[in-house]
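Everyone, describe these structure tokens:
***
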Amino acid sequence: MTPDVQTPFPEGSVAALLERLGTRSIVFVGLMGAGKTAIGRKVAQALGLGFIDSDHEIESVSRMSIPELFERYGEVEFRALEQRVIGRVLENGPQVLSTGGGAFMNAQTRSAISGHGVSVWLKAELDLLMERVSKKQNRPLLQNADPRAVLSKLMDERYPVYGLADLTVATRDDRKEAIASEVIEALCNHLGVPGRIHVSEASEDHE
């Protein structure tokens, strides 16, 4: 819903948030299963911004799936491609960008995100992540006899780095609109925008 027009902006105004955001993108980071794509889409819809999933962009550029890229070229080459793709995408803000779980571990990618975006870490507990990722078979790093142990190790390695993000929002098993609203509230606080912006359930997608 479009807020009433006032001067310069009403409290809780999308326009006020976008004004403060400028050309920067909102960049979601976090482990697989944290909900970066689902929540990112909600935030993009609420703010009237475009949404890009970096994994989908990589697949489009390479014409290969992420598992195929890992298998054929290995993780090092994949991360190099990921870095280039994310760097290019960030030149076209503002937008909402969801990144792969390992992207923020790359120092150059972190630098690009810092220079062209506001980073948001969706922090999730192990049980929630396991429940979500176990439903999908397209996670190259979890093709292991003990995926829970692998995921736990990834948390130990990556959470300190994810903690460098501009914002941290705890995610959980709740409505996407609720988490998206908390992300936008955190963005407003970070950017000094007063008031609250409500994320409507009317915009819910059913993908």
In short: The beta strands are 25-29, 51-53, 96-98, 117-123, 167-170.
